[in-house]
Each structure stands twice: as C-alpha cells, then as structure tokens.
Sequence to fold (474 residues):
Amino acid sequence: MNYISTRGQSPTQSFSDILLGGLAPDGGLYLPESYPQVADRLAAWRTLSYAELAFEILSLYVDDIPGADLKAICDKTYTAQTYRWSRDAAKAADIAPLTTLEADFHLLELSNGPTLAFKDMAMQLLGNLFEYVLDRRNETINILGATSGDTGSAAEYAMRGKHNVRVFMLSPEGKMSDFQRAQMYSLPDANIFNIAVRGMFDDAQDIVKAVSNDAEFKAKYKIGAVNSINWARVMAQVVYYFKGYFEATKSNKDEVDFCVPSGNFGNICAGHIARMMGLPIARLVLATNENDVLDEFFRTGVYRPRATAETHVTSSPSMDISKASNFERFIFDLVDRDAAIVRQLWRQVDAGGSFSLADGPFAARLPDYGFVSGSSTHADRLATIRDVWQRYGLMIDTHTADGVKVARQHRVAGLPMIVLETAQAVKFAETIQEALGRDPVRPKELEGIENLPQKVEVVDAAVDQVRNIIVRHC
Ligand SMILES: *Cc1c(COP(=O)(O)O)cnc(C)c1O
Fold:
C-alpha cells in the first residue's frame, strides 16, 4: 500500500516512511491510495481475537514490514495485561469489551489501557512500531510534544523504555489534575523527560512549534512528533470498529450506528475508513461538547475553525479544540480525492478563514457518508452521568457522557447504537463529584500514585531553555 497526500503535491510514500513523520511536505495529511474492500472477509474475521483482527487489518495497510514481524508486534501490543482496567476484569482479554446498557444500546470500552483513555489503543501500537522501524534502520528519534493531559501521558506510556526513542513532553505548570500530573511525572524511565512550562498550554505548544520550525536543530536532534494526524494512529483505531461491530451483531448483514465523542476528528475518521472498507455501519454519529465546530459542519456544510481565544474550556477537556486536525482526510474523500479542491479549501482555512460546501455539488453527497451530529453542554454532561449511574449503575466519564447524550438523540429502533467510551471516570473526578456527589472508584494499582516521587524540570516559557534540555540529554 502506498500513501498519498491530501494536497496532492508530495511524492508517494511507503508505510514505514510516513510512520515517523508528521505532515506531508506539501502541508497535507497522508492517506492510503485506496481503501481495501473487506465485506467478504467479515465472516472469517468475526471469531478472531483482538490481536489477530488487528494483524489482518494492519496487513492491508502495511506492506513493508514482514508479516511475521507485524504479527509479533500486534500480539505484543494487544494483551489482556496492558488493557486490564475493564469494568469486568473477566473481559480484559477482549481488549475492547462491549458493555450493554439496554437492548441495542452499548458502550465500547476503549479506555482500559495504562492511561485510562482511548488514545492508548493506538499509541501502544505506535510505540512498538517505532521501536521496530528505528531498530531496523539504526536510527533514533526524539519526540517533542506539548500536552494538556491525555495525549502526553499516552505517548509517554507507549514509548517508555523503548530503544532509540526519547520523549520530551511539555505541559503547563500546575494546570493538569493531580492525577494526570502523577501519571506522567512519576514515570521512572530514563528515556522520558517531563518539562513543566511556567505558562499556559498554548505557551508550551508555541515552544514545540518554534523548536520544530528550526530546520537545522530539528535535523540535528532528530525531532519527531506523535500527534493525532499520524496515520498509524488512525489505522490502529480502525480495528476496534470491526471489533465493536462483531460484538454487537449476530450476522454480517446487520447494520450498526457508532457514536463518537470527537475533538480532532481522529477517532471518527477511523470509523469513516472502516465504513469505506465495507463494514456495515449505517451512521457515524459525531458528538461534540460546547466546542461545536464539527457539529456545525455536519448540520450546515460550513467549516469554521475558531480562534484559540474562542475555544471554550469545558469539563470534557480532551474535546476542547478550535480546529479539527484530521478533518482534511474526510474532506479529501468527500470531494472525490480531488487534491486541488482540498488545497483551495485549506488555503482559506490556513489563512484563518472558513469554507462552505453548503451550495456546491458535495452537499448532496454528504448523506452518503453516513454522518450525523449533535453537541452537549456541561449541564447535559452532568445529567447524563447521573442518569447512566442511576439507570444502569455504571459510572461514565465526561467525554463518554457527551457521546451518550448525542447518541440518544439519534437512536433508531432496532438498530444497535455503539457509543465509544473514550476515557474512564477516574480521570475527571471533579466533574463526577459534581454530578454524583461521590468520587469515582480507582483501580487499586493506581491508588496513591500522587505520592510517588516525580521527575520533572520546570522552565520559563522560553524556547532556549527547552532547547538546552534536549541538547543536554542527547
Ligand atoms: C482525544 C480524546 C477525544 C477526542 O478524540 P479525537 O480523535 O481527537 O476526535 C475524546 N475523548 C477523550 C477522552 C480523548 O482523550
């Protein structure tokens, strides 16, 4: 399988070439040249374990890693030991277990990995793929990133102890929850470097951009990233749509709906790809919080990224985005993969503008892709957490609550609705307290992690100080 850029002006690449990179040189995002059609394989795949299913799907997209090696990577990544925090410990071997709330209404548990958010599902694979490819090429990489919580910890837990990989993760000093801070800063591994920046998340992000834009420094110190536009992350997420489908249906003729709490459009983009491959998904229900850029698009055909200052700080913070970095992938498909149209639309976006497909030829095509959408507020979130607790005795996190709220608005009788559970309640204890007047139960192993020794360097919001840390450790 070869990979092409959504902007159409970069050379075609192999999987291993795009694995370690970020954007294509023309500013676009990589996608496979075509989507393999798998409708006739569903019967054979239905009974596979998660690791086996991952291998089957990944094999379609990865042709420059020998099959036996890719199989070993899948087996090592998707173990019951790594994804052990299921509600029902007996289901840990499912990796992504299905929890049924009521007839035809399910949660797909994706947050049973080491950092209790769905990003582990893809990031753990990425860690093993990075190590494999770097070893083979005899190269090293220094991953530089900024995080406000979930992504940074998922990256650190995926890369800890890996050969030839170092992680330099910036976070705003004092702005994460005690739990999130403890999760990251207590990692003892010698290849993980936490850097707390005296400032806000945006200051940390700006430093990452400044360092990455310094081409000489970037090349000399092999600076890389693991952000949400990484194709391998999207690819890994395709797998659990198949898994969820098999769990919720009896026959490969049945259709299902998925509801996806969305921010950067990475998770639901994987659902779109699963649907394009022939998985019988009727609709992809996109749920946003108060940051409703994507809900607005699917309701009106207008994509209007917000200024950072316009972004709401909400109680489902991992969905607080002003623009959706993976959205370009879907638009590329929607406009029949005409890169010239994508270039023109993103000229407007990159200049701080917006675009509308409401009146053109593509508006009529939008329904063919199965998307519907809705948004949620803090009050909805509290009410939904309370309702799910009272009705089913299950505690859900704030992002999943946004999904459940929007899913309910779109349910069709007789059609299974699967809500992706993107994090565990324990990560957002403050809002759980507000909704339920009690603290979420924490897995035993994670009790008291706030008291472990922490490893972090504190710096001013200054590019030089961060650069010095990288130089010192490389
Ligand atoms: C990252 C994240 C999301 C948003 O996922 P996208 O792929 O950015 O759409 C939703 N919920 C949680 C808990 C997350 O960590």
Residues 117, 119, 150, 228, 261-267, 318-319, 399, 422-423 surround pyridoxal-5'-phosphate (CB under 6 Å). The CA atoms of residues 182 and 464 lie 26 Å apart.
